[in-house]
Specification:
Strand content of chain B: 25-35%
Largest interface: A-B, 26 and 35 residues
CATH topology of one domain in chain B: Rossmann fold
Strand order of the largest sheet of chain B: 6-9-10-3-11-12
Number of strands of chain B: 12
Order of helices and strands of chain B: EEEHEEHEEHHEHEHEHEEH
Radius of gyration of chain B: 18 Å
CATH architecture of one domain in chain B: 3-Layer(aba) Sandwich
Number of helices of chain B: 8
Oligomer: heterodimer
Number of domains of chain A: 2
Distance between the termini of chain A: 48 Å
Helix content of chain A: 10-25%
Number of helices of chain A: 11
Chain lengths: 458, 257
């Protein structure tokens, strides 16, 4: 296996993907917008120039891609996974417009779409760019930069399809939209086996001026096994738009999940996003928000749960480019076993962004001695009239609280579970889609000893 | 009810309790007074089962059973209650839920069925009146944002709901104004019963004007220096703790009042 210990090794690492890359038609296919080929070509160039990230890069100091590059990768053939409706039931949000992606490709036969207001478009991305090229190409790839993000570059180089959600001007969509990205698994994740399946889900969500919607992205296994999901989601909230967004990473235990969430907000828009990471052996999400208009409100919350040898990494950059913007970020982590978490958060306030109100906090709960967190929230402020705070905490369960509960007759394991649940409670309470919130509460309870005691709490 | 025999307790190698003997019969109220650092709170914590204390000698029998061998939650289920000197704030856990979980754990141990939501609410309503606790507080997380007085009243409220056999009040009066002190004391007095005992730990004689003890013990330097009736408390108030010298021999078990 190659090791990532220097620049010279990077092209070797990239080889894990390159064999498959050769099959990509960077020159474009007939019927698609001409700009697509250029987008792919540029991304491929970016990837080829930098290769995969080396541990010498600041943003990758605590996350090694070595487990990923121990494998070669190939995109599964269409139809490689047979996913019946019964498999979907576990993941779908009741009452939602559900667009299913299998290995990044739309599966209309599994999707539940219909009864939408005029002008709302929820469809495959390739279908969208051939039918509505203007609407798609105005936004696609505009914000998710590929130059310094190897995995976003890979995703873009392989950009052949995905999901497209458009809420037109002034339309409020009541039912949530769910993009359910299922991935085919292969093997057990042991190195030196056959090439692992890789999926490149790509999602573009556009809320036009004054539009309102709830969007749930779910990443989950089609069957199980090991695989790589390399995802990019771009969200554009135009002026005065309102978005409630959920990102649920529930990949298979042996999976790798490398994702970029790119948010752009126009004037007076309001976005609340919750990023929940439960699955995968190695998961990283880059959350980038650009507050590009005045008076923007942006909430980016997250919860990660990791046990065993799971590794979960969050990289966040919130950029205040215009005045009177508010951004609040609260990320909480619960780590058990030998799990590791990385949180790198940065709030960047441009000189023009006066009256910015920014708050970033990362709180971690360690349930074992072997669990480890590297948390590093940072501020970079170039305006002089702002209110910005940041902080991070890493701690164990409060022994005083455990004793207090036990002194009232509550068993020790139940007391501990109760406190773990309570730690996550305020974040879960902020989830407004009831079935999503309830499913996550249940997923958390399932991981806790004596969960039945906690279940009554809800 | 409670029989403490020659109890020696150390924290990180330093001996805090140096041979406590104390016998508390059903229905009795004993007060333990003493200066700061005399070991009063250590005794309360050891009885409730807190970790970090080494019992180096002696034993404690609770209703004839070896108390020190039990986990804290088992002690609670068998009828021991500690009102904390500093009640703990628990963000994210509502008072109501917490109390219901506690009560049902105890009822289960007693072989009683769990209370349904209606019966529980009726019980809670009745008991909040006892200590004049605002019912709204119960919807909030345990002790979070409570005033000092509200926290102490919440302790006595829990006592009232859980109906223990033995209640240990650890400086429940500290930091209370006279009105709050009266309320708390009234609550305790209403809970006095022939089969329920109280061990009231306090720094101030004042509390004992409202909760009248059967026996007063003076704890000095990890030993019971003197035991007597309630008049001992008044004497202490007048003359201060320096007046009491530690007795060289382990103190005798006090006579029944």
């Amino acid at each position: 296996m190659a090791t990532a210990d220097g620049n010279s090794a990077r092209p070797a690492l990239a080889r894990a993907f390159l064999a498959d890359l050769e099959s990509v038609g960077c020159e474009g296919t007939p019927g698609e917008p001409a700009a697509l080929a250029a987008l792919r070509r540029t991304a491929l160039d970016h990837f080829a120039a930098r290769g995969l990230p080396a541990p010498t890069e600041e943003a990758w100091r605590f996350t090694s891609v070595a487990p990923i590059t121990a494998h070669a990768y190939a995109r599964p053939q269409p139809g490689a996974a047979t996913v019946g409706p019964e498999r979907l039931a576990r993941w779908t949000v009741p009452g939602a417009h559900v667009l299913v992606l299998i290995d990044g490709r739309p599966a209309p036969e599994l999707s539940t779409l219909g009864g939408m207001p005029d002008g709302v478009r929820i469809m495959g991305l390739a279908e969208a760019w051939s039918r509505h090229p203007g609407a798609v190409m105005a936004y696609l790839g505009r914000h998710a930069a590929t130059e310094h993000n190897a995995f976003a570059a890979l995703n873009t180089a392989f950009l052949t399809d995905g999901a497209f959600v458009l809420i037109p001007r002034g339309v409020a969509l009541d039912a949530p939209v769910q993009v359910l990205a299922l991935a085919t698994g292969g093997g057990d994740g042991a190195a030196a086996g056959p090439a692992l399946p890789v999926a490149y889900p790509r999602t573009l969500v556009v809320l036009e001026e004054g539009a309102q919607a709830t969007v749930v992205e779910t990443f989950a296994p089609a069957d199980g096994g090991a695989y790589l999901t390399c995802a990019v989601t771009e969200v554009i909230a135009e002026n005065n738009a309102t978005l409630d967004h959920y990102r649920l990473q529930q990949e298979a235990p042996a999976a790798f999940h490398m994702a970029t969430f790119q948010l752009w907000q126009g004037r007076d828009s309001s976005v609340r996003s919750h990023n929940i990471a439960l699955g995968a052996a190695l998961a990283r999400s880059e959350v980038n928000a650009l507050l590009g208009g005045e008076g923007v409100s942006c909430t980016l919350n997250g919860l990660y749960l990791a046990g065993g040898r799971q590794h979960v990494d969050t990289q966040m950059r919130v950029e205040h480019a215009m005045p009177h913007g508010t951004s609040h970020e609260l990320y909480k982590g619960i780590l058990d076993g030998r799990a590791r978490a990385v949180f790198n958060g940065r709030i960047f306030v441009h000189k023009a962004a006066q009256r910015t109100d920014a708050k970033q906090s990362n709180r971690n709960l360690l349930l074992s001695r072997e669990a480890l967190v590297n948390s590093n929230p940072q501020l970079e402020i170039f305006a002089d009239d702002v209110r910005c705070t940041h902080g991070s905490t890493v701690g164990q369960l409060d022994a005083e609280a455990v004793f207090y509960l036990r002194s009232r007759g509550i068993a020790e394991d139940a007391a501990r579970s109760l406190l773990v649940y309570a730690f996550a409670g305020d974040l879960l309470a902020g989830i407004r889609v009831a079935p999503v919130r309830e499913a996550l509460e249940e997923a958390l309870i399932e991981r806790l000893p004596r969960g039945e005691v906690v279940r009554q709490l809800a | 009810m409670l029989d403490i025999r020659n109890l020696h307790v150390s924290i990180e190698g330093s001996e805090i309790l140096r041979g406590i003997d104390l016998r508390l019969d059903p229905g009795q109220v004993h007060a333990i007074m003493g200066p700061n650092g005399s070991g009063k709170s250590t005794l309360a914590q050891v009885l409730a089962g807190r970790e970090g204390y080494d019992v180096t000698d002696g034993q404690v029998l609770f209703q004839g059973e070896d108390l020190l061998a039990m986990a804290p939650e088992v002690r609670a289920r068998k009828g021991l209650f500690l009102a904390f000197q500093y009640p703990v704030e628990i963000p994210g856990v509502s008072n109501t839920y917490f109390l219901k979980a506690a009560l049902n754990a105890i009822r289960k141990h007693r072989g009683q069925p769990e209370l349904d939501a209606m019966d529980f609410l009726t019980l809670v309503r009745q008991k909040t009146r006892l200590v004049q606790l605002d019912e709204e507080l119960l919807k909030r997380p345990v002790n979070e944002g409570f005033s000092g007085g509200e926290k102490k009243r919440n302790e006595i409220f829990q006592l009232a709901v859980l109906e223990p056999k033995l209640a240990v009040l650890d400086e429940t009066d500290s930091g209370l104004d006279i009105d709050a002190l009266r309320t708390v004391a009234d609550g305790v007095n209403q809970l006095r019963a022939p089969d329920r005992s109280f061990l009231v730990i306090t720094h101030y004689q004042r509390l004992l004007q409202y909760i009248v003890p059967d026996v007063v013990h003076v704890l000095v330097d990890g030993r019971i220096a003197r035991s007597g009736g309630r008049e001992l408390a008044l004497e202490l108030e007048e003359r201060g703790y320096n007046w009491v010298e530690p007795q060289s021999a382990p103190s005798a078990a006090p006579a029944r009042a």
